[in-house]
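Re: beginner question about structure tokens

> Can someone show what the tokenized structure looks like for a real chain? I only ever see the sequence side.

Sure, here's an example I had lying around. Input first:
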Amino acid sequence: MKTLVIYLMAGRATPELAAAAVDGGADIVELGFPFSDPLADGPVIRRAGERALAEGMRTRECLECLGRTRALVGDTQLVPMTYAALLEAYGWDRFADDACAAGASSLIVADLPAGDRPSLRRVQLVAPTSTDERLRVAAEQTDGWLYLVTLTGTTGARQELSPALGALVERARAATSVPLYAGFGIATPDQARATAELVDGVVVGSRAVEVAQDGPAALGSYVRTLREALDTV
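And the corresponding structure tokens:
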């Protein structure tokens, strides 16, 4: 069974949205913490982050959102996605402890390279531009699964899957036996299905954030189409 990861921006309505995503078939919810300079995020997630910041979502409020989400989604994995500057300001160890206490299953720090702060338990990201050595280090240190960024650039829906994904998967398979999940640029059920033919899991972000603006019911229906597509692989 292929793993489906749904990304949502932390906000006042996020716990209910996450519950709807889980009801629709999401196995993991990635919870974005808004940041004023999100280098990896495309326009959809940037705007969502701006809205979250405008409604007062800061690190402490995001952790509280994580806790409320945990209360609604049971044992579903919850993975905060954040940036190094936020952890530096909050305190690295303090953040790790507080995130765990709030219900985090792991952590993603988008701009923290593999090899930096190896004691910080987190999911590592690799991209088509990652060297073999960087990929090896990321694979050794990753927490549970390795996040394959399918393309160079920011998040956002694309018309076609990145042609670089196949080669990245091949290199990653040679380096590690941990599950490989791919994200960035995946929006439609057909794209999710095609990606799942190469990897163990699929991460959908920008399109999920867009649909979430229409409420939990719309998000649940959208996630269900992705789940159905993955279940055919």
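Each token stands for a local structural state, so reading them left to right follows the chain. The longest helix spans residues 59-73.
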